[in-house]
Structure formats: C-alpha cells, structure tokens
Design brief:
With 428 residues, the chain is of the alpha+beta class. It folds into two domains: 16-152, Rossmann fold, CATH 3.40.50; 183-420, Phosphatase 2c, domain 1. The protein is 37% helix and 23% strand. The chain has eleven helices and 18 strands.
C-alpha cells in the first residue's frame, strides 16, 4: 500500500478553497491508476490515502475514516460494491461519500451499484474535469450532511434539556395535585337531617374546579361549586385563593359568614356574597381569570334553601318522586364586569329531595360525535342513579359520564350533592 498526503497551493481546481482538510481514500488494485487519481486529487488541496484492496482500505478506516472514497469496482478479493456494502453496514459517526470507479455503462449495473450503497460513478478512463465535478458534488452533500448532523445534535441536546425541565415540572404538578386535592379534605358528611357529598376530578394534573361546604350555625350549612376559567397552574392557584375565602376551618376569614353583635356567625345573603367576590377579584386579584359559582345556604331542619347562580350550570333538584327541576336564571360570571348584580333565589326541599350543584365539565361533556351531554343527558344519568346515595351516587355518575364521553374527560368534573332527609318525627 502506498499512502500519499499532499496539500497544494493550486487554487485552479474548483472547490479547492472549500476542501480544507477533507480526506479522500483511493482504492484500486492498479498502482498506476491509484497514482494518477491521487495526484489529481492532491493538487486540489485534499488529503489523500491509497489502498490496493478493499481489505486494506477497511484497515485504514479503522484508523482514520475518510470523507470520500473512490473505489474500483472490479478488484481481486472483495469487489468495490461489496466494499461499499460492508461500509454501509458499519456504525459511523459521520457519512462517507462513496464513488465507484468502473468501466460498466449498462443502466442495470449502475442501478445495482446504487442499490449497494454507492453515491456516484466515475467511468474509466477518468476525465480530470469529471473527477473534479464528482468530488465537488460529494463536497456539497457532505457539507449538508454535516450541517444536518450538527443541527440534529443541537436539537437532541435541546430536547434533552426540555425533557429534564418537563420531568421537573411534572413532578411539581404531581405534588400540586396532592395539595389541591387537600383543599377538599372532607368528601362526605352526615348532618343527620341531610348528607353532603363532594366530587372533584381534574382533567389534568391540576384543575380550576373547587367544591366545598361549611357549617353556618347549628341548623344551616353553606356549600358551593366553583369553576375557574382556563386550566392548569394559574386556575389552580386561583382556586387555592378562593378556598381561603370560603373556608370552613377559618370562619373569621370566610366571606360567606358575618359575625353578629351576639358573637356568633350568621350567613351573608348569597347574592351579596357573589357581589363581594366579584369586587375582590376585580380589585385585589388583578387577574384575567374569572370564575362561575353556584352557592347554596340550606336550612337542615326546614329544607329551605337560598341560592345564587353566577354563570354556573343550573343547580338540579331531583325530587323524591323522580322529577327533576333546574333552578336559577344564569347570571354573570364573577370577575368579568365591575358592579355586576347577582340575585338570590330560593327553593324548598322536602324529605327525599336531592340538590346537585355541578360544573360544566358534566353538562358540556361530549361523546365521540361531539354531542354534549346537556340537561337531557344529565336527567337520564340522575334517573339511573336515583337509588344510590352519597359517594356511591357520585361514583356512579362519573362512571355513566365516562361511558358517554370516554375515560379521559376534556374538562374538570366536579359537584356537590345534598340529600335532604328532613327532621325526624319526635313521635317515632
């Protein structure tokens, strides 16, 4: 084997200035043919190596992989096309441009060479102009390949960094979900004359829905269903803020409660509560988010309930005889319009009646055809669940909803379910 390494000052060869330290390997069993090709290539400023066989060329590859290979097709031992196929099967960090040197001119043979992995052909006898043109074409391909490799490497590095950030955010969101779920510590309570059960199922890690209840006094309870606009972290943070305003653990901070002159707590009128929340969201929170609300103040002895609806789905009353009524007239969401007015309305619950406040994640759930559940669909689910109570009712409702809309809900699903049993007869 003869190895030739030459750098020329001859700039007359097109592409020579861009060649830099490109390495070309010439493989031919003819010493004379190797010398002719190597000399022409070296004058153009390329580093040139020679090998007398494919086997020798493979040994060179192990030490210093070339950028371009010019190999004779017909050689003793391994042929040029077999040499090319062997190279293509090897794992390489960068691409090697392969030119087959041949006297074959038949299109079928040329196609066989391309199928074997060759990039180009040179026909014997080799023309100097054609040799330069083929190498220049190879240079363009390699330059694009190197640029693409660098961009892919940068993309892979960037994706790895993004994945690390995503994993970190995902871990934080998992913990945030636990914290948000902890806002609803008590999912069911039996008050004797009534029972309250809560449903809170975010569509993602965290959501914008909030439900809860709190005692007002010995015979009254307040409960609410809230749906903050949007999804994700911002909405979840707003629900955490609102949970503080309607906390059952801190009555002195609960905006629904008023300390009377006798030192005990009474309830604020539901419409007034909505007005106060609207003022706080617009003045103090300074956020683009708003929320819808359904809130009820229920007398656990008489069954009389006073409610407010602020952009939330209509509260549903399922009577003991199975009939279903929807309450309220809609109202404006809270946090949209300064000075918005909210009107309270009332309803009387009889023993066996059930009051359900729900988010629009239930009524607006869509099936595969894009049809929303709506109130008619909710009526059918309420009918099917009429014989169930408490958390069993809510679990069945979610099951029927997933049967309609699919296991993965597009929106948060939440609700408050009150079952009014009425005061016990003292004669019993």
């Amino acid at each position: 084997m003869v190895q030739l390494l030459a750098i020329s000052d001859d700039e007359s060869f097109p592409g020579a200035s861009a060649a830099g330290s490109r390495h070309v390997l010439v493989v031919d069993d003819s010493r004379m043919q190797r010398k002719i090709l190597s000399t022409q290539i070296a004058r153009s400023g390329y580093a040139v190596s020679e090998a007398g066989s494919a086997e020798e060329a493979l040994l060179l590859f192990d030490r210093q992989p070339p950028d371009i290979v010019i190999s004779d097709w017909m050689m003793p031992g391994m042929s040029g096309i077999e040499f090319c196929q062997t190279l293509r099967r090897r794992a390489q960090e960068s691409y090697t441009y392969f030119i087959l040197l041949t006297s074959k001119t038949e299109s079928a043979e040329i196609a066989r060479g391309l199928d074997g992995g060759a990039d180009d052909f040179l026909t014997k006898p080799v023309s100097g102009d054609e040799l330069r043109a083929r190498i220049t074409a190879g240079e363009r391909i390699l330059r694009m390949e190197r640029e693409l490799t660098d961009k892919n490497r940068l993309l892979s590095s960037t994706l790895a960094e993004l994945q690390a950030l995503y994993d970190s955010v995902d871990r934080d969101l998992v913990e945030a979900r636990k914290l948000q779920q902890s806002l609803v510590r008590e999912r069911h309570r039996n008050f004797g004359t009534a029972e309250i059960s809560l449903l809170l199922r975010p569509s993602g890690h965290v959501g914008g829905d909030l439900v809860g209840f709190f005692p007002i006094n010995a015979r009254r309870v307040g409960f609410f269903s809230i749906d903050v606009s949007g999804h994700g972290i911002t909405s979840a943070l707003m629900t955490a803020r609102l949970a503080g305003y309607l906390s059952g653990n801190s009555p002195e901070q609960n905006m629904a409660l008023i300390l009377t002159e006798y030192g005990n707590y009474d309830a604020r009128d539901p419409g007034d509560l909505a007005r106060q929340l609207n003022r706080i969201v617009l003045k103090e929170m300074q956020t683009e988010n708003y929320f819808t609300l359904a809130y009820a103040d229920v007398d656990l002895v008489s069954g009389h309930a006073v409610l407010v609806q602020a952009g939330h789905p209509h509260p549903a009353v399922q009577r003991a005889d199975g009939t279903i009524d929807y309450l309220g007239s809609g109202g404006l969401p809270i946090g949209l319009i300064e000075g918005a007015e909210y009107e309270s309305f009332d309803v009387n619950l009889n023993p066996g009646d059930r009051l359900f406040l729900m988010s629009d994640g239930i009524t607006e759930a869509e099936n595969a055809e894009g049809v929303q559940l709506g109130e008619d669909g909710l009526n059918r689910i309420l009918d099917r669940c009429a014989g169930l109570s408490g958390t069993g009712f809510l679990e069945a409702l979610v099951w029927h909803l997933s049967d309609y809309a699919g296991i993965e809900f597009a929106d948060d699903v939440s609700g408050v379910f009150l079952e009014f049993n009425g005061a016990k007869d003292t004669a019993d």
